[in-house]
Amino acid sequence: MPAIEHLTVGSTDPPPVDGKLRLYSMRFCPYAARVHLVLNAKKIPYDPVYINLITKPEWYTSRIPTGKVPAVVVEGTDLYESLVIANYLDEKYPENKLQVDDPLRKAKDAILIESFGKVGSIMYKMYFNDIDTETFDQFLAALDDFEKELATRGTTFYGGNTVKMVDYMLWPFFERMGSYAVPDKPQFKIPEARFPRLTKWINAMIADEAVKQHYLRPDQHAHHLNMRKAGTPDYVIIE
């Protein structure tokens, strides 16, 4: 499959598309994926423009202070940071509301999302170093809290009986977890026996319509990761 075009140094910002929200993204970025999922779930028409994060366009870094993705343009204003954008979109477009109404539940969801940082830091270490058993054991230990949280909540999803904002904010990172086990490292697959509720949640998320529209298989994520580690990142989605 041809590479997905990601704009780079020397490019120009494409003109806006009437009736569509402009989203600046990177196809393999989990933070940008959060916004794709919210837009998909709420059926908001949008125009994705992909940014090469290694050689960023000058016009992009001059507009977006962080130089990162995602970012969206709303009413002539640039918004960035995935959680900020997700919550803005949920309030701006009230159809299919993703945030829960109860303030305490919303606060607990925010804490859960924030607590994922511990898992994320270990994932980052495994991404850019040769994965080993000790680090993977630390990773699984950090995941135990998320298995327990599903047991405490007693529902298929963290958001309840249907997918909610908290699920979409966590999912992009879980989607990438399977890449550690491919092509020939099954010992680094998340063990279903230890994480039965988490496994059920993962399978239910893969079946979600908003997720399906942006989903990539573990081997597709692994290809991109391996190319990055080799110093030759590309944006090809392998068949």
Automatic annotation (TrEMBL):
Which superkingdom heads the taxonomic lineage of this protein's source? Eukaryota
GST C-terminal domain spans which residues?
A: 102-222
Under Gene Ontology molecular function, one entry of this record is: glutathione dehydrogenase (ascorbate) activity
Which residue numbers delimit the GST N-terminal domain? Answer: 19-97
> Does Oxidoreductase appear among the keywords?
yes
This protein's GO cellular component annotations are: cytoplasm
> Which InterPro entries did the record assign?
Glutathione-S-Trfase_C-like, Glutathione-S-Trfase_C_sf, Glutathione_S-Trfase, Glutathione_S-Trfase_N, GST_omega, GST_Omega/HSP26, Thioredoxin-like_sf
Name the UniProt key words of this record, in alphabetical order: Oxidoreductase, Transferase
> Sorted alphabetically, which Gene3D superfamilies does this protein's record hold?
1.20.1050.10, Glutaredoxin
Biological processes per GO annotation: glutathione metabolic process
Report the SUPFAM superfamilies cross-referenced here. Answer: GST C-terminal domain-like (SSF47616), Thioredoxin-like (SSF52833)
Spell out the PANTHER family in the cross-references.
GLUTATHIONE S-TRANSFERASE OMEGA, PTHR43968
Q: Which family does it belong to?
A: Belongs to the GST superfamily. Omega family.
Name of the protein in its database record: Glutathione s-transferase O1
Q: List the top taxonomic levels of the source.
A: Eukaryota, Metazoa, Ecdysozoa, Arthropoda, Hexapoda
- Point out the gene that encodes the protein: gsto1
